[in-house]
């Protein structure tokens, strides 16, 4: 437990992904949950009915954060709860394994849950997945407890937790038949009572709580959309997009999504259902065209793929956690190879194998029909890890027997090894990847000792080893931008789109005077970059010197941090200061120490503002009533320097709590339009 906690806290410390700035599922859930917490109104996603579980959970945590004055506290609470659930799975996994097999299996399985990379990063990296996964494991644990103790309370809990899993991600619905078979077979073979009198009450104890938990949401959907939408429309829509004429004929998913957006939300499920029936009747082979490539894609070394094959890390801290990631792939390979020996052996765990095989089979089918994402594969890895742990636990515990069960396990294990090895030339991938990383590290060392020729040589070696690595190109382009080599920067950065790459593109356009392109790129990156782009820009960029900085015009990234997104009222642009902000202002000529700082500020209410320049602190009372310029002397200690770093601090308020009919839940203080050194 302590090891698992330490690894999760370590990952949180190096992780920079922030759902407030995400264009992915997390960003959608965060925005809608915050709206729900503020207004009490639940709104579906603009083009899909998504599961509500994460919205309700996020909204509860964000509400607490709002009571404490900052929704960011709510995000920390979400992660704290999810880390707690992740840690709880360790003893629960031990209990499942030792009840189904033995204590040695329990220790091995619990260790996997504690240290395996996907388990460590899950509660920190993807906010919109851990609730489903945690509820699934708790559901399975309760079923096993019921099997051993025959108390109906465990079945009630199993029904509720599976329903919560389904409300977090609708594939939880497909766990019902697996659980029903497990309960029926377990009850059928129990002693003392007639079989039907054992089976029917047990099934009702599970199914009724499940249905009661799901039903309010299903009824809400029917009343709103006049269609039977049990949880969401994600499954039918994703399947139709994968099978659509647009994708089939090579025009891409964008066209299919555009078609859906033209159809009212209430009619989309009926439309995609009719389209799927048409395709099934006329071209049923479409459903199987991706079976084999997607099936191959399941059995890949995930961290090696993420670190050495993909064009970008996509903001994940892979360099910081690479030892854990590589160990994780070795753990994954071990339990994948070992699991068939238990899954195809004589039953030791009773009917639970139905649940494991059911989830493995369903998940494989789902991703083979639609598309493969690592998070979708977690139910496969969960149960293969359990059965792999059982196989490893038997090593040295009993004589080796080569019966028909062992031969079947060996055949499947060898087939999986062939799939993994045959998917990609991993030895060559690793060699190229190591060469790339060594060259990248050499470049960082050369930058630290200010050796430009060595920097360029190292970066060129990096691109030779991996010419498609967009993050490496972004680093090289960032260095070239700082050198003022703009044409070479455009050539190096290439066309592959990442948010960090677009930050460099925007800064490059700004440096070349293309303000319109710069605004578009920098605004988009700040809104959807998946991290605090103001902080990143302050670390990465060296913008042009200026004596006057206007905030909020989307050209101020690299100068500011700790502010809300830019806004415009008439011709005036500004940013709201949040609790504490930094303005870094490089100036064209060295300071004399006699200059004046001019701050153009406004506030909706009297607000005390602390302005720090070096060790010198100034107090300003920003008064309401419009824009005012506040003048402060520049400290004499700045004499001879060519940069001023100004820190602003002010107490915040949350508009929706202070002003009627205001739904703005941001923590704000004062508005900053301009800062100048005179």
From TrEMBL:
Topology versus the membrane: Multi-pass membrane protein
A GO CC term attached to the entry: plasma membrane
Pfam family for this entry, one: PMT_2
A GO BP annotation: lipopolysaccharide biosynthetic process
TM segment ranges: 125-144, 151-168, 174-192, 199-219, 321-344, 351-370, 376-393, 405-423
Keyword Nucleotidyltransferase: no
Keywords: Cell membrane, Glycosyltransferase, Membrane, Transferase, Transmembrane, Transmembrane helix
Compartments where located: Cell membrane
Domain of life of the organism encoding this protein: Bacteria
The Glycosyltransferase RgtA/B/C/D-like domain, residue ranges: 50-213
GO molecular function: pentosyltransferase activity
Record protein name field: Glycosyltransferase RgtA/B/C/D-like domain-containing protein
Lineage: Bacteria, Bacillati, Chloroflexota, Chloroflexia, Chloroflexales
